[in-house]
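Researcher: Hi, I'm a grad student and pretty new to this. My advisor asked me to get structures for two proteins we've been looking at. I'm not sure of the right format, so I'll just paste the first sequence and hope you can take it from there.
Model: That works fine. Here's the first sequence with its structure tokens right after it:
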Amino acid sequence: MSEEESLLSFPCAFPIKVMGIHSQHFEASMVMIARKHAPNLGEGAVKSRPSKNGNYLAVTITIQAESREQLDNLYRELTAHSDVKMVL
């Protein structure tokens, strides 16, 4: 699908939810990856919520998406991380 056919209009605010093992460094690692692809990550762009039993952490990072390629590259790097279980 080309950018002309995309349902998104760039630039746009785009939330990405990453779920993974709840560890001391999980959120910081996800933010570090997001910053590589969206260096202008602003204050309040990151929200976290632990699972009911605290074994997992859901981190929502809202980036200013500039292109489909940027989002694809970010998704690829997030899903390659060993602690990540799912990226939405």
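Researcher: Oh nice, that was easy. Here's the second one.
Model: And its structure:
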Amino acid sequence: MKNLTPWILAAALMIPAASPSLAASGKALYDKHCAMCHKNISDKSFKNKGVSTLTQVAIAGIKGKMPPRGGSHLSNSEIKAAVQYMISK
């Protein structure tokens, strides 16, 4: 176990922490980059997919329906913040 401790610590440090300012900017990111196409964000079937799945879909896009990253240059963390805002409504 002693040999694993430095590796576990190193791995933990590589995981980005949630930024309060990024979480607060979810609405601003949604308003600027997502709202033009995603006006109805109260759809329960959409919300039930969960943050992780929706973030992955937003990053990859949907062929013929949505370009990767919604056509933006948002980071993965910014996309996740926008998705979190969208499903919170």
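Researcher: Is there anything I should tell my advisor about the second?
Model: You could mention this: The domain at 20-88 is CATH 1.10.760.10 (Cytochrome Bc1 Complex; Chain D, domain 2).
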